[in-house]
Amino acid sequence: MMRCRMKDKFQNKTGIIILAAGNSSRLGRPKQLLEYKESTLLKNTISEALKVENVFVLVVTGANQETITNDLNFPELKIGLNTDWQNGMSSSIVKGLSDVLNINPDCEQCIFAVCDQPFVTSLLFENLIIEQDKTKKGIIASAYSETLGIPVLFHKKYFKELLDLKGQEGAKKLIKKHSEDTVSVSFEKGNIDIDTEEDYFKLIS
């Protein structure tokens, strides 16, 4: 029932942008390709995003682009290459949002996600969309470990500010700046991400 209502109400309004351009310097190998749940970390996130009705999903690649792209077999998936990935998270946000707006200029809102939060689910993405529709707030962030963060939904009124981000600036800058226009949804285990071999060992052990 929920998915039917979403199909009617959110047709072609939402893009999900998965940021996967980094070189995993702390890990020493591409975290995007780490085996997880008979898949990989990146493909797990993509699969959860594609379960959401009436969104379009785009992955931003960068470092190890060819290896990562060759591992993806989702016909409906859009892929963007961030050639400036070394310039920080902001470059991937700008690239992803620019590509989404080229694909669908009528996009009303975008969700930004990363590939190394193994417990992300389609339900979380749906909850972000539903909460925005319910509250009409411009930013819907995930809440975990006494902080607000990614995955996070931004209404189109913040697209220009997102496109103006520089260097290591990320979504948290706008969440803090516009706290009065931000609400949250709970993301259990959202604090778990994979940056090191120790992180990965804990996940799979």
Automatic annotation (TrEMBL):
Pfam families: NTP_transf_3. GO terms for molecular function: nucleotidyltransferase activity. Keywords: Nucleotidyltransferase, Transferase. Residues 17-179 form the MobA-like NTP transferase domain. InterPro entries: MobA-like_NTP_Trfase (IPR025877), Nucleotide-diphossugar_trans (IPR029044). It comes from the Bacteria. This is Molybdenum cofactor cytidylyltransferase. It comes from Flavobacterium phragmitis.
